[in-house]
């Protein structure tokens, strides 16, 4: 018996990297897997690997950033497996530029894939699960979003990507608050692993060790958390932003009200500078870490 037996999961961007690792891990845990990727051949290759190990999967190359085509992904999943129980919004892209060098297309394309891509399938499935819940059926559904350390801390040269990922973190909190009443949990993950994007940016750092030691950057390390979040066992966890890399799992703290100074009356503009600098000194961290 696997932790996800009898559950069906849709995974976007599952033709390689983290998405492929998630797909393989969910299949090994007993789930039926919908492998979505705009690269049809890559999706088909992952399905073949899953079927060869005796599990069930179908490929999908439909566009996740349009409701019409996203609906086809849901329809195909329901047709093949009867129901959908979890969605992993993993697909993404990069258009790295310094902010002053960004074009309108650089901005819009990243927002389309990340933010619209997270919206469309989540919205369609949330409606589907809500309607079933209102009809009296028991729902135990999961949405797992993908944010990033860039979205949580900022990253030089990635203002479009970081903004999209920060938006996904905020979206997760709102979804969790609104959808819990229907039996839907929503969490997000900021993963660090070897992918095409990380190999392009820091190939030496993420290289697989040749001595057989623990492969910190193996995407399968992150997949364990994602599979658990997609299982029935995680029903009591929602509205959390996780960070995962290697053997490490942490929960991001997020924005919160920090140090405060209350005068009890209106501040004069000439007084504000000293107050702000004092609050920054008391803050955690005292100075932001750019480019982390």
From TrEMBL:
User: Which SUPFAM superfamilies does the annotation name?
Assistant: NAD(P)-binding Rossmann-fold domains (SSF51735)
Keywords from the UniProt entry: Oxidoreductase
Spell out the molecular function terms from Gene Ontology.
oxidoreductase activity
Report the PROSITE patterns cross-referenced here: ADH_SHORT
Keyword Oxidoreductase among UniProt keywords: yes
Pfam families membership:
adh_short
Where does the Ketoreductase domain start and stop, copy by copy?
7-192
Does the keyword field hold Cell membrane?
Answer: no
Q: Which PANTHER family has this protein been placed in?
A: DEHYDROGENASES, SHORT CHAIN, SCP2 DOMAIN-CONTAINING PROTEIN
- Protein family: Belongs to the short-chain dehydrogenases/reductases (SDR) family.
- From the Swiss-Prot or TrEMBL record, give the protein name: Short-chain dehydrogenase
Give the organism, scientific name.
Pandoraea pneumonica
């Amino acid at each position: 018996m696997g932790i996800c037996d009898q559950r069906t999961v849709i995974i976007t961007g599952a033709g390689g990297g983290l998405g492929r690792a998630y797909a393989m891990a969910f299949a090994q845990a007993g789930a039926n897997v919908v492998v979505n990727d705009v690269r049809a051949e890559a999706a088909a290759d992952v399905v073949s690997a899953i079927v060869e190990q005796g599990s069930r999967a179908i490929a999908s190359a439909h566009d996740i950033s349009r409701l019409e085509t996203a609906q086809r992904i849901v329809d195909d999943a329901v047709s093949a497996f009867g129901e959908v129980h979890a969605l992993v919004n993993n697909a993404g892209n990069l258009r790295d530029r310094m902010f002053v060098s960004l074009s309108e297309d650089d901005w819009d394309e990243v927002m389309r894939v990340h933010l619209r891509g997270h919206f469309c399938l989540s919205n369609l499935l949330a409606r589907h699960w809500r309607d079933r819940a209102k009809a009296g059926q028991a729902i135990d559904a999961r949405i797992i979003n993908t944010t990033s350390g860039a979205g949580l801390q900022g990253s030089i040269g990635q203002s479009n990507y970081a903004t999209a990922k920060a938006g996904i973190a905020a979206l997760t909190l709102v979804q969790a608050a609104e959808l819990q009443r229907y039996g839907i949990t929503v969490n997000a993950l900021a993963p660090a692993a070897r992918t095409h994007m990380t190999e392009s940016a820091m190939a030496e750092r993420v290289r697989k060790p040749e001595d057989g030691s623990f492969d910190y950057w193996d995407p399968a390390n992150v997949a364990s958390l994602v599979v658990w979040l997609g299982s029935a066992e995680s029903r009591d966890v929602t509205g959390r932003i996780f960070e995962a890399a290697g053997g490490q799992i942490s929960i991001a703290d997020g924005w919160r009200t920090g140090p405060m100074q209350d005068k009890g009356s209106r501040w004069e503009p000439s007084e504000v500078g000293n107050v702000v600098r004092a609050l920054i000194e008391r803050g955690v961290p005292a100075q932001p870490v750019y480019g982390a």
